[in-house]
């Protein structure tokens, strides 16, 4: 019997290739005709109920140990005994296997469900104990292309409904290391012998603990063994927003268990549940342990595979722990519910939306703890390159609901919006008209990330080959038309604390993070974005939560754990400006206190930055809760032009005390007579208007470094951006004259200044041994050639013009009506002709 479900026969392989099922999964088994994904599974027409223990059910002889068993056609078989360990078990279409209401164990190499497998119902959950153990006495099987050690649901129905339990709550009081008592916010229905996950409240994901309940009294849980680490529980409220640093406590025990046998702990070949074809699956109250198959594509604890729309299916109230490969995979499936699940100690991306065509999924109320990146010392390899930065939630299409979830203790990213240009994998076959990077955001609200490297990452989307690239998320009304009206994306009410790198990082356009609380992070938030901002939020540098650093770690004042113990002097910051245009508005900041170990500030700039910046980046409506350092700009790296140009506006005086002043770290700017140098900030506070000056060697030759000076003799040497080092930019002040001196010669330069208003002007001098030809606004055409004047007359001109005298080219650049920049091409006459 088992051979019927081992590797696909040649006719099925042909159908597989024609169906585009290129990931190795088989099409629906013959003779069922192909149907559209998402077509409801046929109802089970079983009319006669029989018992497993009745020999008549099996024609007179009960199934023996090791046998491959097929349920009788058209029968609902009630499992009323725990049978001997079987080979394979097939439930054909029109048949059903239902667990009786008693404690039961079912062991088999695999289960193939074409009909129905049921334990309990949604209306009447199963309250006894049931266990399905998948064994591996016959290694290397591949059941209909769905793998080994598998519960394979093909054109069938999976109904698993365990007893309702409180899935997770939080500590009401801090639980110190050495304690054996947890005081919880809610009185749980947990009992002695239950296993819990207790989340880290420090930077270190490994401080997540698995503990066993000894007894429960009200909201007090006594543990079988003392805690190794302190788990914090404190709320802090400022400016109407509350930071809740309370360890989550999740229940791992359920009364229905799906697991591989013990040998999987050594081999990494865990149990695998795969639902595909015309199937539905409703799974709740189930414990999945020793699941997922290490390093094997498509072999996950729970895998909804190419099902299309699934509004009637769900995965809720379950636990997944000791997983060798992910937690829940949603692949080519829409409109699913993934709700109120608890995970612990899993490998690679945990809740995983695979290709980028998965939309309408509701991911709510889940607690994901201790997500591990692969460890080569343990023989673990990354399934995808991105698994080396494992994510608790890997979201490949923004058109989903992600709310009220926890990512706690992740050796990578909490919530990763990893958006491909088009769906990858199997989704590529029909995904040319799907544009995740331009699709409006569904919902991202009330999520919490702590103990990760980066709490929220909206960047670094996958390429078709599985590697990632910097990703510009710019949602618009019509995703196929990038010029259609923008649809601002609002990421709301994020709580992110104790994250080593960032609380949040967003790259794109028209993005807002609002109503959020970011504390105890290396950096609160960076927006590598345009027309984007942080609104109405709370930024805290360091709270009373000192953490519990390991003995080898460098420590902060008072023995505090540091976000980067390998770089103890790293300056912590709340809001970090980057390229822009970005703003921080209506936000309260506090507890950014410099000390002898490291600087700190509420505001700063991305460091080690080689790229261009927008000097119109701004702060407004800020509230300072204490004597926090407001700004700190570290000394620039000598080869990073962005560091040398760091500048932002104080729009309303809530940073500097005077509206409209500019804070700058640029050595080219801060020496002006109306600037005041603030040594604590390592920045000048200046009047005036500012723009971005840029020049590019169009021919791609090497002209850098480019020395840029002003009339006072202040200078910066520009190295150029790393993309071939042919583009150079810095911040300049309007009303001043500048000189740019490239090290090498160019036959065609393009230059200008940006981020300004009509009528704004800038004067720039360049070396020019011979008289060049100059053209405005990217048009190399005689009708658009600049006017030449005498050097003494240049200041009186009202439009773009130039003077060339004594080997020097002097340009006057003017922003035209309706424009925000001025651009000029400078090249030899021969080239321009």
Automatic annotation (TrEMBL):
One MF term in the entry's GO annotations: hyalurononglucosaminidase activity
Protein name stated in the entry: Cell migration-inducing and hyaluronan-binding protein
Subcellular location: Cell membrane; Membrane
Keywords: Cell membrane, Glycoprotein, Glycosidase, Hydrolase, Membrane, Signal, Transmembrane, Transmembrane helix
Region (Disordered): 23-53
Keyword Transmembrane: yes
EC identifiers of the protein: 3.2.1.35
InterPro entries: CEMIP_beta-hel_dom, Fibrocystin, G8_domain, PbH1, Pectin_lyas_fold, Pectin_lyase_fold/virulence
Catalytic class of the enzyme: hydrolase
Organism: Deinococcus enclensis
Domain G8: 56-173
Topology within the bilayer: Single-pass membrane protein
Signal peptide start-end: 1-26
Biased composition (Pro residues): 28-43
